[in-house]
Amino acid sequence: MALMYTGVKMRSATSAASTGSDTSLRESPAQSPQQGGDLPGTSRSSRSIAQSEGRSNASNLSSRSPHMTSETTRRSAIPMDEESGSVGRPSPVPSIDDEQKAMVRECLATIEAGLVNSGVHLNAERVLSYVETITRKDDTVGEGESLLKTSGIYIVQDGVLDMCAADGETVTQRLEAGDFFGELSVLFRVPSNRGVEVVSRKVTLLLIPADVIREYASVETGAQGFSKEVMLNWCVKRSYLESSEIFGQRVLARNVVLSCLKESILSDLSLEAMEFIAELAIPMLFDPGDVIYSAGEEANYLFLILKGRVHILKGENIVETKTVGCSDEGCCLGHLEFFNSVKLSYSAKAAGPVIVAMVSKEVLLEMLNTFQEELRALQVLLSRYKIRK
């Protein structure tokens, strides 16, 4: 099954198939957070998403995610809920071991580095005293019991989880050791209706409670803080396409694709040309096991892997695995055949949830009709990737 991101929300035309997991864990919304003809594989395993209707939530974003600036860098950067008034100092919890501390430090360092131009600082050393450990085994949790006990940032220490979209069934990301989630709700005050499903028999999570983050986060004087622009950049960096409704029609999807294009084989094009392509590219979500494309098909698309793990196959044998994490740059598949107008030599299959942006030949031709000065850059690409016989 493949889902198409075509509007402000990702919606399925029919009900998603069950994942087979018997434990669904959902965050509390109150607390946390065409071009190019037939698509490859659509006749076998994919289905489209209906064009989203309804208005954007961007107009009321400021009340939930204000542009924060502080008089001093030691002031708490993230406001509490109106009903709670002010930040209360959290109570310490039993200490975690050195390996867990290293994971917390790495998580907070990744977040701080990724909040570009925000001036946000997260005091990891102070946070360490309040981190909680949550362990779940499939024989110790009753039906309907939630692993997500409170609002906060969750780090996967070991085990495997699937992040699900609002429908509770569509898997948007597979989470493994070192991955984290919940930061969007905590940092930007965006209510979350996503959930996670336990895949492995045992899962251990590290929880940094939201009130701890709020206590020990600060913003430099005059910096952007937790502005809408900073949040958009963060969602682009993490390829959080399921958050598209926050920013309005196609804004997030376009920016995620543009970010990938800037690091792809098309990076020599002008910014205007890449923006044109990003507007027309087709972002798709593939489920684990879905065929992205098959050997022998016409190479009518460039496949930009935005996030996820893809197996490259020759026949039934896996010859290579491409992995693009939340903090990695995307990669391009099928370009040799695309630029040589030959049929695809290999097949590609989703090894987990995979987000792929598809750029058709028609999109490139339309771009050339609009930006004729880009012809030279494309000629260089054709020469660079020409198959020598």
What does this structure look like?
With about 400 residues, this protein is an alpha+beta fold. Helix 5 (about 230-240) crosses helix 6 and helix 6 packs across helix 7. The model is unreliable at about 5-40, about 40-85 and about 140-145 (pLDDT under 50). The strands form four sheets. Strands 1, 12, 13, 14, 15, 16, 17 and 18 form an eight-stranded antiparallel β-sheet that branches. Strand 14 (about 300-315) and strand 15 (about 315-325) form a beta hairpin. The protein contains ten helices and 18 strands. The two termini are about 35 Å apart. The protein has two domains: about 20-35 and about 65-240, Jelly Rolls (Sandwich), CATH 2.60.120; about 255-385, Jelly Rolls (Sandwich). The longest helix has 17 residues, at about 100-115. It is globular.
